[in-house]
Amino acid sequence: RVVYVNGEFLPEEEAKISIFDRGFLFADGVYEVSTILDGKMVDNPAHLERLGRSMYELGMTPPCSMEEIEVIQQEMLKRNPIQEGGLYLQVTRGAADRDFVYPDESTRSSLIMFTQEKPVVESALAKRGMRISFQPDIRWQRRDIKTVGLLPASMAKVAAQGEGADDAWMVEDGKVTEGTSNNAYIITQDDVLVTKARSNKILHGITRKAVLALAKEEGLTIEERDFTPEEAKLAKEAFVTSASTFVTGVVNIDGQQLGNGTPGPMTIRLREIYIDFARQNLS
Ligand code: PMP
Fold it and tell me: Ligand 1: residues within 6 Å at CB?
């Protein structure tokens, strides 16, 4: 693989970052993952817009303009010609002597990128459907900022897998917030699509926005509101969305099988129309 580090394209073994980088010392960094489909990025302008917002919310000076970031992304795709997978991008506040106070403007933020090859359309997990267990949401209160501080989410996923599930849905104040790296949805017995409303308690998924718009066009009734673990277990269908997994069915919640234990028909339909949308929004 060829990776990108602060102005250079290098073989991955040669790439280096300072041990004083604030991403390393303070998780003082933000990231985005643009999915690669047919060798191009899906809905990438939306990811760059969210990256800009994440940096703004943290008072982080961008490493360069968004246009320049996009040029680097395109060069990465040229140098790593993969059909399906993801392009990971990370901006940290850069390297400075360790201090809780942000360094001054002369410290340049750091930009890195790498690709990961992985089947996205023909996903084994999407065919089988995911098993979910509930875990307490112990993350911070600004989950709308996409920071690299992912340890609580990582702990929740490991705990879920320890219980024989594939992933966790995190629970706070008796309500489901989201998955460890995806947004969470249920379809009730009377066909209402329910997902938590946007706030600082969840990441505003790029895929969430697209899927809700497509579901509306399909004539589905949508409620953006809280739901409890108990309501989730009574659902007709459930699924998650993320850039890297598109729409992926959930077939078992906390030991309760949903429907016949395979991804439901509305979930399958939403996955198909999202993939069509993705193919029409490549760059
Ligand atoms: N929530 C969390 C906590 C996530 O990490 C992700 C994946 N980045 C998502 C939701 C889904 O967001 P997106 O659709 O933009 O990938």
Answer: 178, 181-183, 203, 205-208, 241-243
Check pLDDT > 90 for residue 119. yes
Residue 149 has pLDDT above 90, yes or no: yes
Which CATH number goes with the domain that contains 62?
3.30.470.10
Residues 61 and 173 in one domain: no
Instruction: Give me the helices (H) in 58-164, please.
Output: 66-79, 124-128, 151-162
Q: What integer is the mean pLDDT of 151-172?
A: 98
Atom of ligand 1 nearest to the CA of 47: 15
**Active site members:** 146
- Output the CA 278–ligand 1 centroid distance in Å: 16
Q: How far apart are CA 262 and CA 66, in angstroms?
A: 41
Instruction: Say yes or no to pLDDT of 105 above 90.
Output: no
| Residue that is last in its domain, among 117, 142, 159 | 117
Q: Of all atoms in ligand 1, which is nearest to the CA of residue 206? A: 15
Question: What token pair was written down for 201?
Answer: 């308690």
ipTM, 2 dp = 0.99
Residue ending a domain, among 96, 117, 138, is 117
